């Protein structure tokens, strides 16, 4: 049975993970994703769409109402139904690979009803997102207050109080492309291929951004991050690894790198991994820093679970004119292509035709007639 394009009865194997981005890497087309993800974000939703999942069961609230997160809308627009708020008990009571039957929000293991949740269709998502937009003003006030508060505490990050570790990668006088797996990162990276091939910038992948580079056939020169969402293959291919650590020196991601038999530089610092990637490039005198897929607005940061953007604000203020944000460059490039090149090709193709046609006596009479009509219309 279908409702609004959705299957209301689904039976399929499940994959279970608290980290949606990890689950998306191993789930197979037609399977059910069982997650525990408050406010499903855009990147997570796109990864599930690309994996061609059949259904999403979420133990948590897919839309909490704090802000208008884009993930649920992306899923439902792609005919992936969400069974929402099924609870921790069910999440802990299911096993990877077992088959479940879902009917109108009720979840069965064989003949046993093991739980149920709210069925989120695109109509319900639209209603909840509208309510979230109404709450955004209050959330924005808190976000601004937190940004200012943390900026006061973290100003040493850009004033030389945080020691920049020594790295082997030579940034001096070179352009640097920093890739983050953010909104539209694949489309933007595809648009930047000519730039990469011609300029040969240093390629820096921030966590999963390194996998993005690998997908396009490029080995990252540097991988920066806490190592929670980058593949082993990308780490092994990287020229250098910088592990982002807490300010007290703890670096949970370091063990994973060492277990692979790889060396790494540890950088204890506040802020995000993309912030320190930019700061390293700047401090080691990169000629230009091109940032792709980075997080730069309130929705981006709320989707990452951050209460403010102090470090990002400070770093971007410091590196100033050396930074070019390539986020959304695919839209800009497509616009230029349509206007500049397509019309030029059409005009070029028509030019010889018009020249030959103008030599015809009948065409000359037609042109003269059109000129006369134009003069009458314009009272000339």
UniProtKB/TrEMBL annotation:
Pfam family, one: TPK_catalytic
Record's keyword terms, sorted: ATP-binding, Kinase, Membrane, Nucleotide-binding, Transferase, Transmembrane, Transmembrane helix
Start and end residues of each SteA-like C-terminal domain: 327-377
One Gene Ontology term of the molecular function aspect: kinase activity
SUPFAM superfamilies, A to Z: Thiamin pyrophosphokinase, catalytic domain
Kinase as UniProt keyword: yes
Thiamin pyrophosphokinase catalytic domain segment(s): 201-237
Residues passing through the membrane, by range: 341-360
Any one GO biological process: thiamine diphosphate biosynthetic process
Protein name, UniProt field: Putative thiamine diphosphokinase
Organism, scientific name: Peptacetobacter hiranonis (strain DSM 13275 / JCM 10541 / KCTC 15199 / TO-931) (Clostridium hiranonis)
Upper lineage: Bacteria, Bacillati, Bacillota, Clostridia, Peptostreptococcales
């Amino acid at each position: 049975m279908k409702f609004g394009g959705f299957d209301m009865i689904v039976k399929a194997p499940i994959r279970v993970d608290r980290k949606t981005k990890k689950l998306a890497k191993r789930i197979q087309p037609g399977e059910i994703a069982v997650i525990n993800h408050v406010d499903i974000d855009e990147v997570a939703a796109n990864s599930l769409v690309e994996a061609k999942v059949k259904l999403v069961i979420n133990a948590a609230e897919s839309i909490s109402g704090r802000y208008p997160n884009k993930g649920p809308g992306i899923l439902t627009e792609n005919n992936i139904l969400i069974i929402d708020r099924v609870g921790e008990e069910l999440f802990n009571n299911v096993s990877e690979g077992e088959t479940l039957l879902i009917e109108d929000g009720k979840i069965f293991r064989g003949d046993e009803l093991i739980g149920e949740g709210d069925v989120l269709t695109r109509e319900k998502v639209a209603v909840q997102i509208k309510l979230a937009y109404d709450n955004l003003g209050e959330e924005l006030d808190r976000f601004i207050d937190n940004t200012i508060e943390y900026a006061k505490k973290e100003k040493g990050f850009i004033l030389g109080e945080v020691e920049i570790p020594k790295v082997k990668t030579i940034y001096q006088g070179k352009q640097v492309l920093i890739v983050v797996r953010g909104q539209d990162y694949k489309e933007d990276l595809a648009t930047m291929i000519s730039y990469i091939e011609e300029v040969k910038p240093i390629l820096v992948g921030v966590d999963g951004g390194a996998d993005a580079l690998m997908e396009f056939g490029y080995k990252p020169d540097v991988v920066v991050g806490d190592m929670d969402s980058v593949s082993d293959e990308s780490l092994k291919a990287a020229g250098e690894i910088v592990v982002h650590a807490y300010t007290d020196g703890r670096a949970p991601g370091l063990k994973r790198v060492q277990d692979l038999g790889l060396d790494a530089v540890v950088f204890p610092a506040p802020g995000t991994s993309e912030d320190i990637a930019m700061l390293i490039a700047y401090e080691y005198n990169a000629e230009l820093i091109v940032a792709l897929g980075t997080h730069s607005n309130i929705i981006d940061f709320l989707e990452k679970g951050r209460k403010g953007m102090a470090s990002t604000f400070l770093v971007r203020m410091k590196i100033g004119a050396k930074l070019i944000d390539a986020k959304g460059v695919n839209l800009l490039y497509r616009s230029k292509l349509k206007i500049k090149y397509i019309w030029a090709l059409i005009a070029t193709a028509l030019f010889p035709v018009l020249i030959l046609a103008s030599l015809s006596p009948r065409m000359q009479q037609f042109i003269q007639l059109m000129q006369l009509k134009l003069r009458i219309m314009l009272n000339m």
